[in-house]
Amino acid sequence: xxxxxxxxxxxxxxxxxxxxxxxxxxxxxxxxxxxxxxxxxxxxxxxxxxxxxxxxxxxxxxxxxxxxxxxxxxxxxxxxxxxxxxxxxxxxxxxxxxxxxxxxxxxxxxxxxxxxxxxxxxxxxxxxxxxxxxxxxxxxxxxxxxxxxxxxxxxxxxxxxxxxxxxxxxxxxxxxxxxxxxxxxxxxxxxxxxxxxxxxxxxxxxxxxxxxxxxxxxxxxxxxxxxxxxxxxxxxxxxxxxxxxxxxxxxxxxxxxxxxxxxxxxxxxxxxxxxxxxxxxxxxxxxxxxxxxxxxxxxxxxxxxxxxxxxxxxxxxxxxxxxxxxxxxxxxxxxxxxxxxxxxxxxxxxxxxxxxxxxxxxxxxxxxxxxxxxxxxxxxxxxxxxxxxxxxxxxxxxxxxxxxxxxxxxxxxxxxxxxxxxxxxxxxxxxxxxxxxxxxxxxxxxxxxxxxxxxxxxxxxxxxxxxxxxxxxxxxxxxxxxxxxxxxxxxxxxxxxxxxxxxxxxxxxxxxxxxxxxxxxxxxxxxxxxxxxxxxxxxxxxxxxxxxxxxxxxxxxxxxxxxxxxxxxxxxxxxxxxxxxxxxxxxxxxxxxxxxxxxxxxxxxxxxxxxxxxxxxxxxxxxxxxxxxxxxxxxxxxxxxxxxxxxxxxxxxxxxxxxxxxxxxxxxxxxxxxxxxxxxxxxxxxxxxxxxxxxxxx
Amino acid sequence: xxxxxxxxxxxxxxxxxxxxxxxxxxxxxxxxxxxxxxxxxxxxxxxxxxxxxxxxxxxxxxxxxxxxxxxxxxxxxx
Lengths: 698, 78
Ligand SMILES: Nc1nc2c(ncn2[C@@H]2O[C@H](COP(=O)(O)OP(=O)(O)OP(=O)(O)O)[C@@H](O)[C@H]2O)c(=O)[nH]1
Ligand SMILES: [Mg+2]
Known about the structure:
The complex is a heterodimer of chains A (698) and B (78).
Chain A: E1 3-11, H1 17-25, E2 42-48, E3 52-58, H2 70-80, E4 90-96, H3 100-112, E5 117-122, H4 127-130, E6 132-134, H5 136-143, E7 147-149, H6 158-166, H7 184-193, H8 199-212, H9 230-255, E8 256-258, H10 267-274, H11 279-298, H12 300-320, H13 325-342, H14 345-361, H15 363-377, H16 385-390, H17 395-400, H18 408-417, H19 426-437, E9 442-443, E10 446-447, H20 448-474, E11 484-486, H21 495-529, H22 533-537, H23 539-546, H24 552-566, H25 568-580, H26 587-595, H27 602-613, H28 624-630, H29 642-654, H30 659-669, H31 673-697
Parallel strand pairs in A: 1-3, 1-4, 4-5, 5-7
Antiparallel strand pairs in A: 2-3, 6-8, 9-10
Chain B: E1 3-4, E2 13-18, H1 26-30, E3 38-44, E4 51-55, E5 58-62, H2 64-67, E6 71-74
The structure holds guanosine-5'-triphosphate and magnesium ion (MG).
Guanosine-5'-triphosphate is lined by residues 11, 13-19, 31-33, 35-38, 60-61, 122-123, 125-126, 151-153, 360, 491, 494, 497 of chain A.
């Protein structure tokens, strides 16, 4: 018989909960040296001796049980709800040895909820450097619990933690503090009114209610106890906090000694430069430039290799399988489409690599510090910088990362403008069009093409900030504004953590994109290969009659093109053509625009499929780029010119073309209102800007 | 004369004396900003905002508007 127990990992932000989670479950959740990496509940399983299965729940970090942001709220909601299927049988409180005092505050609160609580003191490897020594037996006795001193970096102490979890029944349920002493009268009345309820829990629900104002699961009627004014309650909470710290100081006086003279650290020295009024910004700018350089320049070597491999794969398919429509679909639609994504692996990996190193080192908090005042001008928070930077990889995790912004208005604005930042899905489109329409040549040592790309990134970022400014003026939401960010100590990024982030994220990107491309390629191919009516079915006779003295190859080309034009997809494209003609696009690009509303990276795959159906299969091993370059209007003019290219680039820079982002925004804002506004406003801006650009340049 | 954290200069320390303003977020108190604790100003961003502090061993940054609410007594070490 196997038994299952629920184990919740709780602790202050950035204490290593996810690292412990990964060590226990063998999973690879994202770890980073920035408070607020984990923003939602994550679950895994750990097998313990005697057939016990531990169901481990990793939670966002929280400083206390009084939530002040959405991610922290997850923890409180779980602990206050005994009926939750994940309600823990045992809580594992993860603390950081460097900040033990502060971490113990949360410990005392959890313990007062009468949940069996194990105290984990993590980062034991840093004790020497900080001159900290602990008397574990004394701490265990004073705190009335079992302690595991561990280091997930050195993989030490995990076994002891497992043993403790296995024996959780032996833990004492004695609370640390009698909360009712902060206001005897008030608690006496509470007790009378709800004799069956736990007092501390009642107290938490009441204060939580007041602070969060959106409780839904009320079985109890507190109305009479909310008579206390907000500030009275707050005063009581202050009193409670002071009492808890008194208790903790008492405990640590005997359990912990810190020899400051032994403490060494590069925090102070690094902070002098990295957060400096001038040098701080210079360094930040240099880092951004380096990232950019890496993405554009260093990545090109592996990219050329991938490009060549896919071209030969495509050839191989054409040679190996019997010629026919299916081979075409495979070789020129699907393989070309997927190749169009795979080729960006090096760039996307570089991007994730840099972002993950910035996070793991502890530098990200410094950027938040440097940027807060500037961002506030635009109605954002310093903490918005993190979503805006990681939005260059993908808007989805970026929008999730806004959860640790305390102020709802700042958070909402950040969510709304993040999709303007140039995400990696735009890269494939940008690069191919830049290569097509921007001339070669250099300006101050930088190629025009690289400059264009850089400009596109700046435009995206500028647009995000500009619309934040507008939104700040428009939105009337009033919300308490405050801002606290912890500055973690610097850590040398752990290779494993960085590698995991890079590999996992890149893999997800490729597979997600791959799936959509595959599906859309097939649908498109079907829609392009069949059509209604005479024009499609009698294409051969019509064209042969029209062009009697063409050679066979040209004739077949004409027939294929004619068929495509009257196929289902052709009809759809032709229908929307009037709307996009002023932007400089033909109906084939129009189709690609439609499909890329599902996901931007589908653009190239779509064109690859359409072009391959639309030509007889004679001109071989052309890359998609060459095909695009060769596309002409019936009158012989090129389709991809400087004007239409720039117009397309700008359209992609601004349009909201990502279903997944819309879905996440819906989830994070809890309404369809905001994602729909995003969809319409962004697409409208994109249309207008692209229109102006094309009309000016043509 | 009473000082607030916002009056500290880089490298200066003080002892927190009063936190009774309602506008001080509870979270800050929970992070150790309580009467009797030592606070040191480590670094300021341009226009002294935000301020990077060491409060009772916690390293954190807060905005100037919050720092102005926390009363301190300057300590005259060194
Ligand atoms: N030196 C050292 N660093 C550690 C140890 N455990 C974790 N870290 C580092 O501490 C940082 C935070 O780790 P996470 O596991 O992301 O912490 P978390 O508690 O899940 O953080 P949030 O999800 O943001 O609340 C990372 O940079 C880890 O590499 C340890 O035992 N020793
Ligand atoms: Mg985490």
